[in-house]
Q: What sequence folds into this?
DNA sequence: CATAGTGTGTACTATGTAGTACATACTCTA
DNA sequence: TAGAGTATGTACTACATAGTACACACTATG
């Protein structure tokens, strides 16, 4: 693993908790719909990261980028997967082409596409 | 599901079998390292598609595009997933930007990146 | 008519995924 | 010093994944 999912979540949650008591394990667990003991184990990397659905609720509560949190969990958002599955040759070629390139290059591409001036 | 994985494989295998007796269920199953009864069930969509590793061996034997076969199985190649996980914000933005665009546009982009003239 | 090759039905299994349920132990504070 | 709030340890579970093992029935052929 690159970085531990659990410890990252714990750090984020504790940061929020400094100013907001609603960010205890118990209360956060309840808001995202899991048992406190489970969230605790997740945060200590005692168990594998939760399902995509649970991670998304977690990201929303912690105000984190869902794609980043999913990535830390070793997952890729299902809507991205679906986009790739619909046009596998095209997206496979593009991603393999880009995976060796620097962030700058990819970012530039994103912007070009977004601005439509190409 | 968009299209059935199994029936596609069966069609491809039977096509090959017309000219090459090595493409019976039994022999192909043996070459890709699974039980014939399992391959049979897979081809009749009686069970879920095989694992990524098995699909890749199948694609190689049938001379099919692995990404297409994986897509039919509802999967995305793990090397693509890994590329996305390494830079989630960037790739998520790019893919979401492109998913509404026509094939032509994506293809043009692939070529531009490949040719490096940008 | 036996036997080699074809596909398939049934039963079973090992491992992983994504959690729940409950009990325990600590700490602050009213 | 009781009670509320904190996190955590242990045990268990339902369902999915990815198959194996073996017996069976059909067909062509030498």
A:
């Amino acid at each position: 693993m690159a970085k531990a999912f659990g410890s990252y979540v714990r750090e984020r949650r504790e940061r929020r908790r400094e100013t907001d008591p609603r960010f205890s394990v118990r209360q956060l667990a309840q808001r995202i719909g899991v048992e406190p003991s489970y969230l605790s184990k997740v945060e200590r990397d005692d168990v594998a990261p939760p399902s995509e659905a649970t991670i998304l609720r977690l990201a929303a509560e912690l105000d984190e980028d869902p794609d980043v949190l999913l990535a830390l969990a070793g997952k890729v958002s299902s809507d991205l997967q679906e986009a790739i599955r619909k046009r596998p040759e095209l997206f496979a070629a593009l991603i393999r082409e880009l995976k060796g390139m620097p962030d700058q290059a990819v970012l530039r591409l994103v912007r070009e596409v977004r601005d439509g001036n190409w």
